[in-house]
Please model this.
Amino acid sequence: MKSETKDPKPYHHGNLKQALLDAARRLLETEGHSNLSLRKCAEAVGVSATAPQNHFANKAALLTALATQGYGELHAYMGRGVSDAADRAARRQAALLGYVAFAQDNPALYELMFSRDRVSASDPDLLRNVGACFVILADISKEFGRFEGEGAKVDAKQQMFVWSLVHGYAQLLTANRFKKEDMQGVSILDVIPDLHS
Amino acid sequence: MKSETKDPKPYHHGNLKQALLDAARRLLETEGHSNLSLRKCAEAVGVSATAPQNHFANKAALLTALATQGYGELHAYMGRGVSDAADRAARRQAALLGYVAFAQDNPALYELMFSRDRVSASDPDLLRNVGACFVILADISKEFGRFEGEGAKVDAKQQMFVWSLVHGYAQLLTANRFKKEDMQGVSILDVIPDLHS
DNA sequence: ACTTCATGTGTGCAGCGTAAACATTTTCTT
DNA sequence: AAGAAAATGTTTACGCTGCACACATGAAGT
Model:
């Protein structure tokens, strides 16, 4: 019984990496992005100020991990409560509502996920999770509206249309750019025009 | 001739405020948002590190002024090359193309304009310029697609649809979230589905 | 047992925003 | 014209930040 795998707490702290991510995530939403610092994360977890360096090469690496985690959860939100047998219209509805719900539940993280110079956009893990989200978006975009051109181009336009619409809606919503009175009883589904005659 | 208004250079520097904004804007696009500092702006202009404090209460105030300026230019981009006599379809086309062009020309500034905690969203000047942009968006949103509900609600949904779509498209485009091959010869106008039967 | 490596601490440094005291120049008031 | 007041700029200082570096410690492998 020399290498049992029952207790995965390897040593000093436990698993500091995930603890730092959790603390960073909480600080991000509570204090705002510009008040998030590695030192505050370290202090929240109870380690020295330089301990995070053992798990993240720099601050950008931590933010990238945070964004990667965010895309994973966004994917989960979009797939929530959808049975495999559901038709595309049902999946589409659930995915759109889930997408917006994630942004509303994690506005600061959502903004970070689309920031241009705070996360390293070429990170493989990040790209993988982004790709997983895009698979769902591509699926629900099929048979959506009428676009001109040949087949592949039509698919691309449909996907760009759906992603642009839901992303823009989510961002403008969480950035409070919509008038409150316009939002009464309105969801992302109401903002999609009737596409067929 | 004691108070002639011919030379508006008041004294020491000239007009440091605008010079700082110009420097900040250049640094923002070249160095990226996370490498923009007041001290670098001051150095670029050739004044001491604390001189900006006389013109901007804090860094957020400078970024807010930058965003305000951005919305002014976005408004100008949307109105470019449009005669007053043009019909709504022509204005819509020009405004959408102008909107996206501004985002492409000023990606870092565009991101700043929609950031949640770096600009003070309640600034009156900012709100005024945001409102001016929204007036154009509301105008081009009329008679767009088919939405259910009574009159005012339909207008609101149309506006939210158009702004969500063009903002999402602009942001995803500048964040390189679209596949390059999908973008070949595609503009914002191609991503809007045929809304009528 | 000894080495090796992963992980955590302590120290130090340059850059940052910004507060405070002071200097200088313009503008206002008389 | 003269002095007061305001606007603008500099210097200094302080605490916070990311991070490089040397070192300590505990776990794992041989």
Remarks:
- The longest helix of chain B spans residues 151-174.
- Residues 10-13, 16, 47-51, 54-55 of chain B lie near DNA strand D (CB under 10 Å from a C1').
- Helices of chain B lie at 16-31, 38-45, 59-79, 88-105, 107-113, 124-141, 151-174.
- Chain B touches chain A through 51 residues (CB under 8 Å).
